[in-house]
Design goal:
6-stranded mixed sheet, alpha+beta
């Protein structure tokens, strides 16, 4: 599992918040739900998205944006329009003075807005949690990432929009999977066009470092050493160490340790997994060895981390 896959397979919210916003006339929303990641795609009409301290960005039909939290941002029909609606954590919707708008803007199955079919229609998908693995990807993103329809297209956008109107058994799981695939497509397209993609992403294309990264991601529990990774990549230890540090920014063994502990942090969110099982899955011989490394990395024990995740 690589970093982009990890963003969407950690302890994110099951039944991710996915809906269609139907809007008419002049409107402006302030989104301060503190979600780590949200996707917006304009299906019809247009919108302007403004991140904190940035210029408004126009979204037209087929354009898609990813907003990285927890910073708030505004979405409006016109740049500079004062928001009259606030989206809070838990997707609670109010006026500026706190009046609840849940019933006022409810328009049917997974539909919200000022009307049942507006001149502007926006698909919204929100992840309420991101695991430690996903933070590597989130840290590489700007607060607002926008892809123009001319540079990117996916049939999944129309498919997800169609599925929003359905209410069949298992529908939440279908929406989760489609949203995951859509976000992965957006991230791939954006990283491919980025002027300076993160080292761990760019290094995937390197014959030596890419091979080492795939070995680590595909079999993290294997007792890797620098010598074993270099042998599998068909280079010397010195060559692997030098090229890995140049491209990724850290040594192969430091990357391996960081990756193992990030995976462990995500696995600890599953209450059915014992500490011994988590340790085994990420390549630590004993729970004690994992606990010692985990506390050095995160400043808390695995048990404390699990309790914090359970109450978050």
């Amino acid at each position: 599992m690589d970093a982009i896959s990890g963003l969407l397979s950690g302890p994110r919210a099951r039944e991710a918040f996915v809906l269609r916003c139907e809007l008419d006339g002049a409107w402006a929303l302030r989104v301060q739900d503190e979600a780590p990641l949200a996707l917006m795609a304009v299906l019809r009409g247009s919108a302007y998205v403004t991140a904190t301290g940035a210029e408004p960005v126009h979204l037209g039909p087929g354009d898609v944006a990813l907003a990285r939290g927890p910073a708030p941002y505004d979405v409006a029909s016109t740049p500079g329009l004062q928001p009259s609606v606030v989206i809070h954590p838990g997707q609670r919707c109010t006026t500026l003075d706190g009046t609840d708008l849940r019933d006022v803007f409810h328009r049917g199955v997974r539909t919200w807005g000022t009307t049942e079919s507006g001149s502007t229609s926006i698909l919204v998908g929100t992840y309420t949690r991101a695991g430690e693995v996903g933070r590597r990807t989130l840290a590489a993103l700007p607060e607002l990432l926008v892809l123009d329809s001319a540079d990117w297209h996916s049939p999944l956008l129309d498919h997800l929009a169609d599925e929003l109107a359905s209410d069949e058994p298992g529908q939440s799981a279908v929406l989760d999977r489609l949203l995951d695939l859509l976000v992965i497509g957006v991230l791939r397209a954006w990283f491919a066009r980025a002027e300076a993609p993160p080292g761990w992403y760019a290094a995937r294309g390197d014959r030596v470092v890419g091979a080492a990264l795939r070995l680590i991601h595909d079999d993290v529990a294997r007792p890797w050493s620098l010598a074993a990774l270099a042998s599998a990549a068909s280079v010397s230890r010195a060559t692997l160490a030098r090229r890995f540090a140049d491209l990724v920014g850290q040594t192969p063994m430091a990357y391996l340790t960081e990756w193992r502990l990030a995976l462990a942090a995500d696995l600890l969110a599953d209450p059915d997994l014992t500490l011994a099982e988590v340790a085994r899955r990420v390549g630590y011989a004993t729970p004690f060895a994992l606990s010692a490394a985990f506390k050095r990395q995160y400043g808390v024990s695995p048990r404390q981390h699990r309790l914090e995740q359970a109450t978050a």
